[in-house]
Amino acid sequence: MGLSGSSPLGPLAGTFFLSPPFFQLLQHLDDEMIVILDFGSQFTQLIARRIREQKVYCEIHPCTVPLEKIKALQPQGIILSGGPSSVLGENAPTIDPELFDWGVPVLGICYGQQLMVSLLGGKVENSDHSEYGRTGIHIDHEGTFFQDVPQEKEVVVWMSHGDRVISIPQGFEVLATSQSSPYAAIAHLEKKFFGIQFHPEVVHTNYGTQVLKNFIFEICGCEGSWSMQSFMETQLEQIRKRVGKEKVLCALSGGVDSSVVAALLHKAIGDQLVCVFVDNGLLRQGEADRVIKLFRTHLHVNLIHVDAKRLFLDKLIGVTDPEKKRKIIGNTFIEIFDAESTKLNEVRFLAQGTLYPDVIESESFKGPSAVIKSHHNVGGLPEDMKMELVEPLRELFKDEVRELGLTLGLDEDVVFRHPFPGPGLGIRILGEITDERVETLQKADKIVMTEIKKAGWYRKVWQSFAVLLPVKSVGVMGDCRTYEWTVALRCVDSKDAMTADWTHLPYDLLGRISNRIVNEVPKVNRVVYDITSKPPGTIEWE
């Protein structure tokens, strides 16, 4: 349904849509799998991404998941993540010790290493010499775990721990040491248990990816057979099996997620898919025509187009508070979507573009701690909601969704489209939203997109856009005094939008964008560049 970032539902979708139970186990996408048990590390998603980059499928589950459910997944290996807790704490998160009797290779990272040592008879203590940041380790063992990692010199790794192992369990041996950690890497080679005090998943650790590759391929015996082609084929089969001859309703925004969901469902069930595209008047210039042409003309999707520009803009007259804007836009979309869905007879399924980070952020992957946030894709439905959810992208990261889009044959212009907020330009127009101000921002935004693409920067950055500020300033144009609006340019680099840094665009590119906006967009006489990172700022201004 494309509700991840690019959805017309925006942040209110959680009020209306319910994801399947978290512990509902996914069908195997391939014969091999690595399971990551999360103890609250800020790097857990990175572990999963590094493994999937090697074409090995993996899933993240809370450390509290019952052992029998882990066994049901039949993983080739288990990874215990790091975490902020101390194994010496009274309420330290833990796992069922029987996991170590199962016969599956286990890798413990940071907290995971300390927990493994503690459960198997070793000792951990609070250290007077904590290690944070880059640290050098010395590898003292020639074996498959550190295969292709230089052993004749110090290897730089990333440490982040206060506790340290002081005694290892019986049968374990030392593989590497650091100045403050005599057990920087340990292993029970016969049982294939490995523990490392550093984080191999972060870019600051030299040869970290190689260490993970050695574990999943050399220790766990994975072959790297997972691909987008195999994922697509499996999903097509599962969709057909679950949906049967029933209709599926999909809210289409034209963003990456919703476009890929629609393309995948159409390939699976053809005309059983009905897409509803609501034009709220807050889209980019020409966006509605682009979406209609793509899905009706090129993909031959059964598309219902609702032109609701006047309805949305009339409701937004005089509204300046960003949260009120979001609620008005979200509620109005729901009203329209509900009205259109009732016109369709007996629609049983609702398609939604939930991605894996949405699930991770919304479920308690922090073990016993609090949920990070309730994401709009995985919130709650009314009890009387009769449609069942179809979420074919639920196991994928954003870059994997883009890869799937290419596998489905979607154009790169669609697949690599920059994220666009659910409320659209409504939260990029600070202050009151009027027809005139929408048209002004659409023209400025068009110039930004055109110049960014022409300069070859569109695929280099995560997101770029224009913001219309409720600020007027004095200018001089044609020897006359002007007092007009200001446009802010926002361009950021990011991996997943959790954090972002402002992009260092070339000065000549910034100059061209500024010159074109002030010369071609009426009632704008100033352009500024936002150089705020996230945190402390956010990517969007509202």
TrEMBL record:
Keywords: ATP-binding, Glutamine amidotransferase, GMP biosynthesis, Ligase, Nucleotide-binding, Purine biosynthesis. The active site is at residues 110, 199, 201. It comes from the Bacteria. The keyword DNA-binding does not apply. InterPro entries: Class_I_gatase-like, GATASE, GMP_synth_C, GMP_synth_GATase, GMP_synthase, GMPS_ATP_PPase_dom, NAD/GMP_synthase, Rossmann-like_a/b/a_fold. It is an enzyme of class 6 (ligase). This is GMP synthase [glutamine-hydrolyzing]. It comes from SAR324 cluster bacterium.
